[in-house]
Amino acid sequence: MKKIKGVVIHGNALGRTIGFPTANIAYSENDIEESVFHLNIVLWKKIHQGMGTYMPQKKVFEAHIFDFDADIYGQEIEVILLQKIRDNQKFASLEDLKAQIKKDQKEILSHTLNVLSFGSFDVVHPWHFYYLFEARKYGTHLITIIATDANIAKIKWKPPKNPLLHRVEDVMKLEICDEVVAWSESAPLSWIAQYTPHSICLGYDQRGPFVDRLPLEIKNMWLESELIRIPSLQPEIYKSSLLKKTLI
């Protein structure tokens, strides 16, 4: 999934003229289709939905943020291209363009792009917030699957410090996830079939048989889910095993 960053620059203000202002960032890699995309835009540590397109002749990516009209010139934004909506096209009039943008926005807002994340979340700390916030960028609905006490004991050869209900409550308090559910003991991959995720986000250190099986299971279910590894955040500090030792 393509992700770009840049500082918002001035454009020709056409979008604002027709009621759909755009945040423009310079981009000249020419590795993006000339298409209209459903976007997530990260600004001021918040994730906003939007739409946008790459204009190679101008070397600019134009992003319209839904329900947003603040002055953000000079601000850095991060743009995640979630999915293609349609090819770019020319319009006979500005009214035709405006009508199409309204249609595109309606279509985008009708889509739910599920993101799956997994973990034990025993002793919640800044890495967990970082992991879930990063995962949330890759869709519109974040579901977090939390390992049960029995599952953790089986995988790590020892029970968690905190019971399942405590861990679920701690994750919910972060106010990032749309759903927080317990792992299925009997069918650990059932969540993939249930949610048909747009993306599945894994932590930098998540390994094991379940993770190894994911690519094949996604293929067998005829899904196009993208597997994404979230990079570490100061693992020498924010690692559960180290923090547990500190608490002990």
How would you characterize this protein structure?
- The chain is α/β, with parallel strands linked by helices.
- Helix content is 30%, strand content 30%.
- The protein contains eight helices and eleven strands.
- It has helices at residues 14-17, 94-109, 126-136, 149-156, 164-173, 190-195, 209-220, 240-247; strands at 3-9, 23-26, 35-43, 46-55, 60-65, 76-87, 114-119, 141-146, 179-182, 199-203, 226-230.
- The protein has a six-stranded antiparallel barrel with strand order 1-2-5-4-3-6. The protein has a five-stranded parallel beta sheet with strand order 9-8-7-10-11, sandwiched between helices.
- It is elongated, with a radius of gyration of 21 Å.
Task: Record the SSE blueprint.
Elements: E1 3-9, H1 14-17, E2 23-26, E3 35-43, E4 46-55, E5 60-65, E6 76-87, H2 94-109, E7 114-119, H3 126-136, E8 141-146, H4 149-156, H5 164-173, E9 179-182, H6 190-195, E10 199-203, H7 209-220, E11 226-230, H8 240-247
Parallel strand pairs: 7-8, 7-10, 8-9, 10-11
Antiparallel strand pairs: 1-2, 1-6, 2-5, 3-4, 3-6, 4-5
TL;DR of this structure?
The protein is an alpha/beta fold and 248 residues long. It has helices at 14-17, 94-109, 126-136, 149-156, 164-173, 190-195, 209-220, 240-247; strands at residues 3-9, 23-26, 35-43, 46-55, 60-65, 76-87, 114-119, 141-146, 179-182, 199-203, 226-230. It is 30% helix and 30% strand.
